[in-house]
Amino acid sequence: MEALLPNGWPAMRVEALTGGYSGAYVVRFIEESGKQELVVKLSKDKTLLQEEARKWQDAVASTAFNGILNNAFNVKEIGGISYMVMASARGPTLEERTKTGTPKSGMALDTLLELGISAAANLHRIQPCPLMALEPRSVQAFNAALPGLLNLRDGCARRDLLPPDFPTREAIELFATTVVDQWNARLRDQGLDSPITVPQHGDLNPRNIIIPPSGPPQLIDLARFGEWPVGYDLLRLELQLLLRLLGTKQGDESFPDQLGSWAALWDSIERRMPEGSEPAVPASLLDVLRAIANARGRMYAALQGKQPDAAKTTAAMRCFDALKMACYRDATDFKRLLFLYIAIRSARAANLMA
Questions:
Q1: Under 8 Å between Cβ of 9 and 36
Q2: Which intervals hold domain Aminoglycoside phosphotransferase (predicted)?
Q3: 213 in the same domain as 80
Q4: Residue 39 maps to which CATH number?
Q5: What's the gap between Cα 197 and its chain centre?
Q6: Do 55 and 222 meet the contact criterion of CB atoms below 8 Å apart?
Q7: Does residue 129 form part of some domain?
């Protein structure tokens, strides 16, 4: 590890930013004084990093990403481990910043939101998007997880741990057979199978955004960079913030309150609830989510006449992400049910099910 670092770092601490599920790890090295940092991606699979380096180069060449990506995208090797330096900016991730309860991150957040809006204003092609086509392995994973999800739902229902609007067992089974199993056909039926796409990060979660003391944010981890439906980055950032930063206690009396908090928070953003009726969540989180919702509204305005049914497309994308998250083996029971709740609610908003 020391060989990766600049000279003059007598001591440091190491933090893992991602867990290596894709075969690579994102690690942050912090010099003892805290004045210098490096974010590095490591993998034993050199070809994996070389492919990301190619995407990184494409992203840097994109005018939309000027100034928010480090230009050092070369893959190097040491001791049988391949690595690439993704950022040298000092500062917390957006996840860390929002957890502290500090005000929203001003220029950094605004820059990210403007990316989504400018993408909508500078559309360049229409094509079927791979994101929206649910792969057979994802369908199989959901169907394999379904019995466990149903048992979990029934167990919570017997203990009165579910809010009144949580989907019934029959609704969950209907979702599986009419939405998940027939995903691609349902998208075609609703005219949502060929959304307008633009280059986007593809995995804009709060751990992939570094907030420096001044200047624009720095984005890291471009493994999923490519053509995505307009607005996907904003949607993913919003959903990941909700899922990471709301409480996730499971198996006790707090369960309905936790699930209800998500629904109330969503309503406060989408429907502009009266002042004083917002759920009890960190003010910084509410600020960020409201800013994203406002940016999404401006994005829809930019799509006028270019992308029909932009709101339905967003709901379908949200359903797509959430139904896969419901199958995560390492997720808590609360999160698995929460993802299922989000997926079914989004499917209804997209008219994919009654």
A1: yes
A2: 15-237
A3: no
A4: 3.30.200.20
A5: 17
A6: yes
A7: yes
> Ramachandran region of residue 239, left (φ > 0), alpha (ψ -120 to 50) or beta?
alpha
**Within 10 Å of residue 314's Cβ, how many Cβ atoms?**
24
- CB-side exposure of 130: number of CA atoms within 13 Å? 5
Say how many domains are in the chain. 2
Same domain, 146 and 11: no
pTM more than 0.70: yes
Mean pLDDT is lowest, of 105-114, 192-201, 286-295, for 105-114
For residue 26, the enclosing domain spans: 2-87
Measured between alpha carbons, how far is 100 from 21 in angstroms, rounded to an integer? Answer: 27
Tens of pLDDT, residues 63-87: 666 666 666 567 888 778 888 887 7
Radius of gyration of the chain (CA): 21
Q: Which residues pair with 83 in a beta bridge?
A: 42, 76
Q: Which residues, 6+ apart, have CB-to-CB distance to 222 below 8 Å? A: 52, 55, 56, 59, 69, 201, 202
Domain boundary among 87, 105, 134: 87
Indicate the helix (H) or strand (E) that contains 197. Answer: strand 196-200
> Are 141 and 327 within 8 A, CB to CB?
yes
Residue with token string 């969503």: 266
Residue pLDDT, tens place only, 305-318? 666 677 788 889 88
| 3-class DSSP state of 201 | coil
